[in-house]
Design a protein that fits this description.
Radius of gyration: 26 Å
Structural class: alpha/beta
Low-confidence stretches: none
CATH architecture of the largest domain: 3-Layer(aba) Sandwich
Bound molecules: pyridoxal-5'-phosphate
CATH topology of the largest domain: Aspartate Aminotransferase, domain 2
Number of helices: 17
Length: about 500
């Protein structure tokens, strides 16, 4: 099968339509508005059209196609029951402009989700408005900015980030007008408290950090770090992209954080990738709650009107000193409801999810870094072998530096070759502090068999002829592309033949 445009301009047509019932109906369209040349659309029958889209879908890689160990992105299985739930008429057949009394069911789901997110993060108030983690970061940092300003501390103009931070952290702070102060991690990849102490001051607005870090390492001194930042008058911001590692075990509130964002599309499942669709709610401690973006959902005891039957009336509320709206309508409702369904499924057993995610990451890391393997010396893993706590959380990084030095094969070559074996490439060259980095996150939804096979294939690649690896991928529809060109000059349209 090739694409549908091969049918372009073909004789005949793929559709049939009855003649208009009123004679001359089309004559009522003014000639000025009528086409003189027919559009050059493909003329295809329904089966041809179906085949076109099915063929297109197979050219893409997704979690439904195969193992997707994309570190930091938490690509887990999306239970199909969630799709059934969002298609219920009370959810998918409503309009955001409908009055509150007609959408009590959805509002009660939103309210419950806000509460569940508050509990799992140890925060006092959540809003579901932002539609991506990065947007959540921006919105929460704006709340912190307004908080300082309301305390007469607008002079605080610096945000501290560790050098292992995800790029969106400094970018979000910079969009709020802050200057970024980057602090180096210690030799073991962990937060360096001396570097933090040297960086904080009267001008510190906040510190942004994720725990476990992007190396998959838990920061045991996070409470001390929060004390240092708070003593200087700054706020602690938790990047919740790595929540999969800690849910039900600990929470950012307990670690001393004032504000967090959640990546619902990662932690609580949701088809995502390629830019969406996502949901990045934010949660804050009470002192920041008045600044949250609006609206959020609130409730009051009310006579039972028969809609939810729980004795409450739910309504939209604008926080007193809200930074305003960050998103049209009410955020990404579909993503919120899917995540709510996933969270509800686990309930108090949420920690099982994290335990399995962490177990899978450590198991896979051990299979790849197996000391008995003859490839053991071809890879390094952070924390570097021999470092004290040689256990990771939900993801781990590998440095392909040793293999590069001996054979010339780079981390990118290995990532491309994995595509030939039917896997999505791990995250590549991030975090930047690990040379020739591959970052792997298996998630809790993969079986031991999948992990064993991946480790076996990974090590096989390291034994292959370097040239085969360096010229990979060989079996994909699209071979190795110039990635800079592809990113800068996206070609998203197919020009029709003349
Ligand atoms: C650690 C971390 N922080 C923030 C983000 C940004 O989240 P989003 O892609 O939803 O904007 C990501 C995304 O990969 C991430 O991994």
């Amino acid at each position: 099968m090739s694409d549908i445009f091969q049918f372009n301009g073909a004789e005949g047509s793929g559709w049939s339509q009855p003649e208009p019932m009123i004679d001359g109906a089309t004559d009522t369209i003014p000639s000025l508005l009528r086409r003189s040349i027919l559009p050059r659309w493909p003329r295809a029958s329904e089966p041809e059209l179906v085949r076109h889209y099915t063929w297109l879908s197979h050219r893409n890689f997704g979690i439904d196609t195969g193992f997707y160990p994309l570190g930091s992105c938490t690509m887990k299985h999306n239970p199909r029951i969630n799709e059934r739930i969002i298609q219920l008429p009370g959810i998918d057949r409503i309009h955001p402009l409908q009055p509150e009394h007609q959408i009590q069911g959805l509002l009660s789901i939103f309210y419950e989700m806000q509460e569940m997110l508050e509990i799992c993060a140890g925060m006092d108030q959540v809003t579901l408005q932002p539609v991506a983690g990065a947007q959540g970061e921006f919105a929460a940092i704006r709340c912190i900015q307004e908080y300082h300003s309301s305390n007469g501390e607008s002079h605080r103009d610096k945000v501290i980030v560790p050098d292992s931070a995800h790029g969106t952290n400094p970018a979000s702070a910079a969009m709020c007008g802050y200057e970024i102060v980057e602090i180096p991690s210690g030799e073991d990849g962990r937060l360096n408290l001396d570097a933090l102490s040297a960086a904080v001051g009267d001008d510190t607005a906040a510190m942004m950090i994720t725990n476990p870090s992007t190396l998959g390492i838990f920061e045991p001194e996070i409470v001390e770090a929060a004390e240092i930042v708070h003593a200087a008058g700054g706020q602690m911001y938790y990047d919740g992209a790595n929540f999969n590692a800690i849910l039900g075990k600990t929470d950012p509130g307990r670690m001393g954080f004032d504000a967090v964002h959640y990546n619902l599309h990662k932690t609580f499942s949701q088809p995502h990738g390629g830019g969406g669709p996502g949901s990045g709610p934010i949660g804050v401690k009470a002192h920041l709650a008045d600044f949250l973006p609006s609206p959020l959902v609130d409730r009051e005891a009310a006579e039972d009107d028969g809609s939810t039957g729980d004795g409450y009336r739910y309504f939209w509320r604008k926080p007193a000193k809200s930074i305003g709206k960050v998103q049209q309508w009410h955020g990404n409702a579909g993503a919120v409801v899917r995540a709510w369904a996933y969270y509800r499924r686990y309930g108090r057993e949420l920690e099982l999810m994290s335990e399995h995610a962490v177990l899978n990451a450590n198991y896979l890391r051990h299979q790849i870094m197996n000391p008995d393997s003859d490839k053991h010396d071809s890879i390094h893993s952070m924390p570097l072998d021999g470092a004290p706590a040689d256990v990771v959380k939900h993801e781990f990084t590998l440095s392909m530096m040793p293999v590069k030095e001996t054979t010339g094969v780079t981390g990118k070559d290995v990532a491309k070759r994995l595509l030939d074996y039917g896997y999505m490439s791990p995250t590549l060259y991030f975090p930047m502090i690990v040379p020739e980095c591959l970052m792997i996150e298996p998630t809790e939804t993969e079986s031991r068999e999948v992990l064993d096979k991946f480790a076996e294939d990974f090590l096989t690649i390291l034994s292959e002829d370097p040239e085969v690896v360096q010229t990979a991928p060989h079996n994909t529809d699209v071979r190795r592309v110039d990635e800079v060109l592809a990113a800068r000059s996206l070609v998203l349209r197919k020009e029709l033949d003349e």
